């Protein structure tokens, strides 16, 4: 398995290449009058150097395969979907579903306990933040 | 006399009933965060950062600051009773504290930890009160070159003192600078790195970055961790047991004094954080001891020194924060973000232009320390029971709190998405051994670095000699260069042992 230095070095190299390109596009200015891209250009150049160093350091290193927990991948997927549907489904529905999914991922309790707990957490959050602290949540499907 | 008058003014602000309530809430939450492993003070402050939009500026700062020093107290309880350090800064305490608990001396260990913390914390606040205004007046003479060099030195120190690879830390500092400059250029008003996306026009919000990198990522990493929840054994304590006897005090007096000084002065240095000084204090106590071989078997000096150190360090970090606008660690970086959100310009003018913020905060720290002493001793049983809450419930509540916090800033679902993406980045950083500290500090210092660099070069007509021709600027840069060179030549850092012992 490729080393963490190699993989992260390649990722940082790609990131710094984009930053370098964009910095040049927006303009470096002159030493007497530095432009908008001046500091980001400098940071990107240093980052390229560091990325190459990390790639070099990790080139011949082999590490045990890094596995990401299935739970974490699913939790992240739930959260990304939550941010995408929050507006259309509304706070209460989207939060209830997301909380139920997150509880379900981590506990082996019966489904009705998970649903009851999710409903309790969602309603408590709505009362505390939506009613008492007056955060304006998206109304969505339920209209509240 | 002026200082006493100003402190009196600070107390008149802090003693307002609502501010007392927020101070109490801050230290209570700080203690809770210190007790719970897997949720650091930076994560807790970031979770509560959205409150600055709903509370008055001073109140929210009092609460957020309460979390930073409250966490130092909380960490000691579980370190001593259960050998579970809630914070990296409590790891050294567990070496002898837990052994004392096993020998039936948990009471004196907890007592000396609380009293030592109180003494060190109070000394730190007095020093903060005396040094910060003086440093701020000196910093009023700083021009753009000095600020540029100060930012460079701070970033170098942070990368140097962060656990793990220096190259990775430096890479994170560069990434932090780049991310901080997304949005409109303050000089030309042109947009940069927005790629046509409107939500990026104002740049990334510190709240979203901090919650994602510290709050979400910690929870995600814990969800993925296969380690089981700590097994909590029942420990019976009562307040009478908690008071150290005369011998304990005589053994602890010098370690407390030394720990206070070490912690305070190391706390001033950006990047040292609160954990590194505790290991230095522990090593120093062992060196000074007549029976160094007994360290690790339950000697009270091993608890008194590190516990005093971490509280003094915590107060020390407030000096560069409030007088120069330079954060020393992620927690203070997020506090600095809170100051900026509220509309206060951190730096030497803060104390002069907003004395209510500075003196109100200082006075609240006195009150907070007293509250912590009163809170911690009788509530030890409660804190231990808190560890029994299943992490599956706690993690979902923290995640929900992050989501709502992100949404409440601008009532925008895009912010929620951005925060979740930062959570993903933070999780990957943890898995790939990249520290978040250099990134968040660079994110905070990036705009200052850019402004001072561009102003300096305009002043000098493009000559970089301006940074080396002014003594203060030169001193800052020489220190930064010396650190880099020492790493390159020796291949390792000064204090590497202490840095490596720190849990990121």
Topology (SSEs and partners):
The complex is a heterodimer of chains A (144) and B (504).
Chain A: H1 4-26, E1 29-30, E2 33-34, H2 38-58, H3 70-89, H4 91-106, H5 111-132
Antiparallel strand pairs in A: 1-2
Helix pairs in contact in A: 1-2, 3-4, 4-5
Chain B: H1 2-14, H2 17-35, H3 41-48, H4 57-82, H5 91-102, H6 106-139, H7 144-161, H8 166-180, E1 183-184, E2 191-192, H9 206-224, H10 246-267, H11 275-288, H12 301-324, H13 330-342, H14 349-353, H15 355-376, H16 380-386, H17 391-410, H18 413-431, H19 436-459, H20 466-469, H21 471-490, H22 496-501
Antiparallel strand pairs in B: 1-2
Helix pairs in contact in B: 1-15, 2-4, 2-15, 3-4, 3-9, 3-13, 4-5, 4-6, 4-12, 4-13, 4-15, 5-6, 5-12, 6-10, 6-12, 6-15, 7-8, 7-19, 7-21, 8-19, 9-17, 9-18, 9-19, 10-11, 10-12, 11-12, 13-19, 17-18
Describe, in plain words, how this protein is organized in 3D.
The complex is a heterodimer of chains A (144) and B (504). By secondary structure, chain A is mainly α. Chain A has five helices and two strands. Chain A is flat, with a radius of gyration of 23 Å. Helices cover 72% and strands 1% of the residues of chain B. Chain B contains 22 helices and two strands. Chain B has helices at 2-14, 17-35, 41-48, 57-82, 91-102, 106-139, 144-161, 166-180, 206-224, 246-267, 275-288, 301-324, 330-342, 349-353, 355-376, 380-386, 391-410, 413-431, 436-459, 466-469, 471-490, 496-501; strands at 183-184, 191-192. The chains are: A mainly alpha (144), B mainly alpha (504). The interface between A and B is large, with 61 and 61 residues.
Strand order of the largest sheet of chain B: 1-2
**Could you estimate the helical fraction of the residues of chain B in percent?**
over 70%
Q: Largest protein interface?
A: A-B, 61 and 61 residues
Distance between the termini of chain B: 42 Å
User: How are the strands ordered across the major sheet of chain A?
Assistant: 1-2
Q: What about the largest sheet of chain A?
A: 2 strands, antiparallel
Compute the average pLDDT of chain B: 82
Helix coverage percent of residues of chain A? over 70%
Query: What coarse outline of chain B follows from CA principal-axis ratios?
Result: globular
Gross morphology of chain A is flat
Strand content of chain A: under 5%
Total strands of chain A:
2
- Tell me, rounded to a whole number, the average pLDDT of chain A: 88
- What is the helix tally of chain B? 22
Radius of gyration of chain B: 22 Å
Instruction: Look at the helices and sheets of chain B and give the structural class.
Output: mainly alpha
Low-confidence stretches of chain B: none
Tell me the series of helices and strands of chain B, N- to C-terminal. HHHHHHHHEEHHHHHHHHHHHHHH
Oligomeric status: heterodimer
């Amino acid at each position: 398995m490729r080393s963490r230095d190699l993989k992260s070095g390649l990722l940082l190299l790609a990131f710094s290449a984009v930053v370098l390109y964009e910095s040049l596009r927006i303009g470096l200015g002159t030493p007497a009058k530095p432009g908008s891209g001046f500091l980001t250009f400098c940071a990107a150049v240093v980052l390229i150097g560091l990325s190459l160093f990390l790639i070099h350091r990790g080139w011949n290193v082999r590490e045990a395969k890094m596995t990401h927990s299935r739970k974490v991948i699913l939790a992240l997927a739930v959260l990304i979907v939550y941010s995408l549907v929050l507006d259309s489904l509304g706070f209460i529905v989207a939060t209830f579903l997301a909380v139920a999914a997150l509880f379900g991922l981590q506990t082996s309790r019966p489904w009705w306990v998970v649903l009851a707990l999710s409903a309790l957490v969602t309603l408590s959050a709505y009362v505390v933040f939506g009613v008492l602290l007056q955060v304006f949540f998206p109304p969505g499907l339920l209209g509240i | 006399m002026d200082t006493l008058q100003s402190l009196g003014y600070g107390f008149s602000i802090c003693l307002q009933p609502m501010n007392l309530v927020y101070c109490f809430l801050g230290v209570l939450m700080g203690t809770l965060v210190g007790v719970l492993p897997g949720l650091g003070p930076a994560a807790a402050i970031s979770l509560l950062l959205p409150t600055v939009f709903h509370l008055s500026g001073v109140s929210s700062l009092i609460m957020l600051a309460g979390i930073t020093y409250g966490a130092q107290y909380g960490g000691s309880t579980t370190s001593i009773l259960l050998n579970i350090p809630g914070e990296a800064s409590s790891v050294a305490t567990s070496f002898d504290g837990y052994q004392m608990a096993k020998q039936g001396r948990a009471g004196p260990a907890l007592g000396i930890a609380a009293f030592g913390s109180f003494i060190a914390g109070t000394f730190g606040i007095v020093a903060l009160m005396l040094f910060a205004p003086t440093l701020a007046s000196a910093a009023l003479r700083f021009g753009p070159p000095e600020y540029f060099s100060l930012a460079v030195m701070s970033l170098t120190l942070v990368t140097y003192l962060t656990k793990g690879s220096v190259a990775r830390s430096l890479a994170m500092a560069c990434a932090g600078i780049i991310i901080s400059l997304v949005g409109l250029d303050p000089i030309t008003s042109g947009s940069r790195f927005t790629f046509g996306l409107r939500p990026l026009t104002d740049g990334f919000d510190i709240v979203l970055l901090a919650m994602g990198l510290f709050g979400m990522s910690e929870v995600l990493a814990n969800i993925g961790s296969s380690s089981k929840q700590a097994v909590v054994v029942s420990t019976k304590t009562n307040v009478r047991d908690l008071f150290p006897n005369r011998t304990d005090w005589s053994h602890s007096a010098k370690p407390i004094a030394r720990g206070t000084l070490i912690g305070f002065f190391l706390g001033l240095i950006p990047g040292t954080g609160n954990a590194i000084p505790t290991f230095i204090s522990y090593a120093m106590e062992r060196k000074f001891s007549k029976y160094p071989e007994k360290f690790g078997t339950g000697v009270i000096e091993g608890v008194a020194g590190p516990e005093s150190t971490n509280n003094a360090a915590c107060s020390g970090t407030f000096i560069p924060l409030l007088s120069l606008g330079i954060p020393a660690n992620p927690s203070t970086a997020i506090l600095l973000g809170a100051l900026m959100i509220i509309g206060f310009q951190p730096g030497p003018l803060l104390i002069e232009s907003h004395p209510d913020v500075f003196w109100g905060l200082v006075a609240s720290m006195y009150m907070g320390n007293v509250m912590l002493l009163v809170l911690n001793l009788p509530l030890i049983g409660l804190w231990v029971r808190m560890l029994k809450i299943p992490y599956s419930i706690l993690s979902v509540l923290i995640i929900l709190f992050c989501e709502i916090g992100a949404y409440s800033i601008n009532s925008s679902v895009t912010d929620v998405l951005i925060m979740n993406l930062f959570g993903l980045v933070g999780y990957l950083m943890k898995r790939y051994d990249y520290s978040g500290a250099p990134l968040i500090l660079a994110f905070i210092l990036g705009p200052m670095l850019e402004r001072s660099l561009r102003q300096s070069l305009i002043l000098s007509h493009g000559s970089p000699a301006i940074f080396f021709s002014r003594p203060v600027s030169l001193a800052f840069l020489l220190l930064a260069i010396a650190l880099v060179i020492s790493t390159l030549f020796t291949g390792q850092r000064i204090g590497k042992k202490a840095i490596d012992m720190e849990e990121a």
